[in-house]
Amino acid sequence: MTPSEAAPDFQRFPDLPDGEQVAFDIVEGNWTGGLLLLCDHARNFVPPHYDNLGLSDAQLSRHIAYDIGMEALTRRLAGSLGVPAILSTYSRLLIDPNRGEDDPTVLMRLSDGAVVPGNRHADHAEKERRLSRYHRPYHKAISASIEHMMASGQSPIVISLHSFTPIWRGFVRPWHAGVLWDRDSRVAKPLIAALKEGGDLIVGDNEPYTGELTGDTMNRHGTCRGISHALLEVRQDLVSDSAGVEHWAARLAPIFEHLLTEEGICDVLPPHKR
């Protein structure tokens, strides 16, 4: 294995309090293959000393704490395609990796009707502690991965995998999946077209959310660097069990492979800044 095919030399915390774990997990793959998968909200884990942020296990099992089904789907796709993936290891309620550090929702005090007691009185010092321990190491790992892959001579396509709740504030969402993007449509448009091709899916174009979010993962590592990217959302009831995960992995794998053949998709564009 050549140095470029091996994993980057990730810097992790040398000392963590009892019960904690590193802020990200790596699925090894071909680092020269041109594709990097991300999972911002892979788990609902909260370190023991935070006492579940004052929430019940039932609340932590909801979509407010993590993206249901996405860790399994990300790992399945990475294994099938032989590509690397980076996954967060903490609940989004502790600190949200898919928000900029200055975004008021990076540390949520209320989420879909649930008050988060452990966040209610979190001050600036506590926010900074969580950013330093969990948020920044995750993004540092992504940056290191992209730089490592670019050093091999090819800029990667970066795809972030998320899931969304079927019902939001009483509205039954019709989409099976959605593709979020901002100023760079190189991945988004062919991905949307491929998902619609079979005629059996309702696919959102910047639905059920918009990809125009300053400071989020795709803005930070894609838009602001000129790296080809997109965020894919799958409805949670479709990936809530192993059968659903297998179905979507089989559906997405050939689409992701084909993306790499799109002309100019791996070029680095002039970065967009806000």
Folded structure, characterized:
With 274 residues, the protein is α/β, with parallel strands linked by helices. The chain has one domain: 3-Layer(aba) Sandwich (Aminopeptidase), CATH 3.40.630.40. It is 29% helix and 16% strand. It contains seven helices and eleven strands. The chain has helices at residues 57-60, 70-81, 117-120, 124-151, 188-196, 217-221, 242-259; strands at 24-27, 35-39, 85-88, 110-111, 114-115, 157-164, 167-168, 171-172, 177-180, 203-205, 229-235. Strands 1-3-2-6-11-9-10 form a seven-stranded mixed beta sheet, with helices on both faces. Strands 4-5 form a two-stranded antiparallel sheet. Strand 9, helix 5 (188-196) and strand 10 (203-205) form a beta-alpha-beta unit. The longest helix has 28 residues, at 124-151. The radius of gyration is 18 Å and the shape is globular. It starts with 23 loop residues before the first strand and ends in a 15-residue tail after the last helix. The mean pLDDT is 93.
Largest sheet: 7 strands, mixed
Given the structure, what is the number of helices?
A: 7
Low-confidence stretches: none
Which CATH first-tier class would you pick?
Answer: Alpha Beta
Share in β-strands:
15-25%
- SSE sequence, one letter per element: EEHHEEEHHEEEEHEHEH
Task: Compute the average pLDDT.
Answer: 93
Number of strands: 11
CATH architecture: 3-Layer(aba) Sandwich
Helix and strand content put the structural class at: alpha/beta
Question: Per the principal axes of the C-alpha atoms, what is the gross shape?
Answer: globular
Structural domain tally: 1
In whole angstroms, the N-to-C terminal distance is 40 Å
- Which strand order do you get reading across the main beta sheet? 1-3-2-6-11-9-10
The CATH topology corresponds to Aminopeptidase
Percentage of residues assigned to helices? 25-40%
Radius of gyration: 18 Å
